[in-house]
Design goal:
The protein is built from 7 helices and 9 strands, in the order H-E-E-H-H-H-E-E-H-E-H-E-E-H-E-E. With 202 residues, the chain is α+β, with helices and mostly antiparallel strands. Strand 8 and strand 9 form a beta hairpin. It binds coenzyme A.
Amino acid sequence: MLTLTEVADDPLLLTRRLALNDAPEVVFRPLVRTDADRLAEFLAGLSHESRRLSTFDGYGLATAQELCDAIARYDKLRLVLEEVPSGRIVGLLEFSLDLPPGDLARYREAGIRLGPADCRFGPTLADDYQGRGVGTRVFPLVADVARRFGRRRIILWGGVLADNPRAIRFYRKNGFHSVGSFTGADGLRSLDMMLNLDPLPG
Ligand SMILES: CC(C)(COP(=O)(O)OP(=O)(O)OC[C@H]1O[C@@H](n2cnc3c(N)ncnc32)[C@H](O)[C@@H]1OP(=O)(O)O)[C@@H](O)C(=O)NCCC(=O)NCCS
């Protein structure tokens, strides 16, 4: 089973090239400490609507630097999609291996006991990469990462806003099912969704 330290020491463990139908090739790889500038460009480039659907603490260098400084220090694993050959970051795929008490309580109410075999996941693609099947193309790699960390289920990090039909469709078509809904601190309704992972072959 992989650990965050092993991935930080050897990002190639989770690095894969991916051919896309109508776009340049991309590399799926862990975020590395030298990514801050490129990650800042990715965050700064997100539209108002993308920021509404996928919220970060900030959208500039300070936040990008924080995310890079957090590598292997907490419970988070962040992967990026890097466009080849430009080197531009066009997606950020975030895992948390830890579950906050609020999530444990909400899922318990729905009759699901979360534990060490669960993780949280949240994707954000650059605006010009959304709605073209890229998320679905990448998803098997995401599921593999979770499996390699010994996880058997994935839940959505912070849920998905009920008025984000594209993301809800994306999750459903990649095997997630709805677990319930809740109203966040911002008063907006979100859905909790969960995926049961098939075991690794062999
Ligand atoms: C959510 C996200 C990662 C999905 O990746 P993606 O590459 O755009 O998704 P895909 O193109 O693989 O799949 C989207 C599906 O939604 C469908 N869709 C698109 N717009 C839709 C809409 N308004 N209503 C319903 N379905 C819609 C697409 O047709 C496709 O389904 P299909 O293949 O059955 O036709 C990406 O769109 C994204 O980063 N969005 C902005 C941030 C965000 O919402 N993050 C998730 C926060 S919970």
